Amino acid sequence: MSRAGELFENGRIQDAVTAVRRLIAGSGKKYYVKTFGCQQNEADSERIAGMCEDMGYLPADSPDEASLIVVNTCAVREHAEKKAISVTGQYKHLKNADPGLVISMCGCMVSRASRAEQIKKSLPYVDFTFGTSDIHLFPVLLSDRLAGGKRRFELPPDNPPIVEGIPVRRESGFRAWLSIMYGCDNFCSYCIVPYVRGRERSRNPADVLREAEELIGAGYRDVTLLGQNVNSYGRNCPFGCDFPGLMRRIDAIDGDYLIRFMTSHPKDATRELADTIAGSRHIAHQYHLPAQSGSDSVLRSMNRGYTFDEYAEKAGYIRRVIPDVTLTSDIIVGFPGETEEDFEDTLRLLRTVRYDMVYSFIYSPRRGTPAAEDPAQVPDEVKGERMRRLLELQTGISSEINEKYYGKVLRVLIHGKSKNDPGMLETRTEGGKILLIPDDGTEAGEFVNARVTGTGAFLLYGERG
Ligand code: SAH
Ligand code: SF4
Ligand code: F3S
What we know:
Elements: E1 6-7, H1 11-24, E2 30-35, H2 39-54, E3 58-59, E4 68-73, H3 78-90, H4 92-97, E5 102-107, H5 113-122, E6 128-130, H6 138-146, E7 152-153, E8 163-164, E9 175-179, E10 181-182, H7 193-197, E11 201-202, H8 205-217, E12 222-226, H9 243-251, E13 258-262, H10 271-278, E14 286-288, H11 296-302, H12 308-321, E15 326-333, H13 340-353, E16 357-362, H14 370-373, H15 380-403, E17 409-417, E18 424-429, E19 434-438, E20 447-455, E21 460-464
Parallel strand pairs: 1-8, 2-3, 2-4, 4-5, 5-6, 6-7, 9-12, 12-13, 14-15, 15-16, 19-21
Antiparallel strand pairs: 10-11, 17-18, 17-20, 18-19, 20-21
Bound molecules: S-adenosyl-L-homocysteine, iron/sulfur cluster and FE3-S4 cluster.
């Protein structure tokens, strides 16, 4: 079988793995990975954990038990960066107590030269950093540092390879991330992701299918296909397989499982994709289609590539062919130049599409992106006030939609004991909604039927039915 890109099992990386294994053999040393950001980072952290265990480290329950700490950072908003720096700062005293402790940072924030430089200068207890596309080099950087090498701050190359075969330690035994592509070429004018995750590149469908078969064969029930823009999968690739084609090939695998995907871009959301979901056996009736704004002029300055009407038409088609779909969106409030009329267009979009749920974010200027240079920044009070209005409107819509589930019997996947509601089990509907049922001891990872007995804007309640 042909494979794209490099293999983790190549000489330099395996030499490093072996060197670390020899060094820590039988020592009982532990690792701890702290993750910020989105599902791509969660998936990357599972690979980092996989490599740590491959090198002989054991998992630690908390950072103070660890001899190796990795902080996987996010850069999408300022708050995420501040959080990563402050959490890493808290590990300083651990290093003072144990100078042998290795502290590393990776992910989107440290993939920018300016941030890597800042870490180098202001956090002297950080041993090395590496970028999102250099994850496979982690054993090499670790091994060099353990052998007394200098601190290193690796920046991602311009054309990173796809590396197959990196060991994975999955957090869950029934839910899994499956990366199908990396990077993003869309350059939405507010977004840092294309600068920190590099150019869009798709995995070979043969590799994706093999991983999907392994997961489903191992009993995974809920597999999410990951990428910044999954519906452009296969673009500029010689594989002759686009996203709907890939989904159909995965859907053909027999078993009791659901496939989800994150995230799709409206400009590439074709009718074929909606039809593929509608006609599938295993693709969950859930569609996250971030609109970001309802104003044509804001959408133009965001470089999104669609208008209100084009978006609403696509959303309407999705609801028509998949009537029980859970449709969700991301919205940015207070983009530079956003006027009251622009914002009202966004509220109108929410009323038109009637999303099940909206993830809303206050615009956060990211240095190096075009929108951050725009002189027409919206004042914080205006952003806050618009956010409140948006939440109020959407909470009402979400409540009304959820009320319609009252009395229905839904097939749900048990996720485990609820953290907030003692005595309840947290489950997910096929559409990805949280539904709580009384804890009758059913194991996580099982599908059961539940009848909805109560609804709210963000939650459903039910009982086995
Ligand atoms: N690739 C995905 C999203 C990645 S980032 C997509 O295109 O949908 C997740 C969300 O963060 C985005 O959808 C956007 O709503 C939000 N976001 C990105 N940059 C932001 C910024 N500078 N300020 C506020 N929110 C931002
Ligand atoms: Fe960012 Fe746009 Fe790419 Fe999403 S599609 S990651 S919002 S640049
Ligand atoms: Fe954050 Fe990077 Fe994801 S910037 S949102 S962790 S792609």
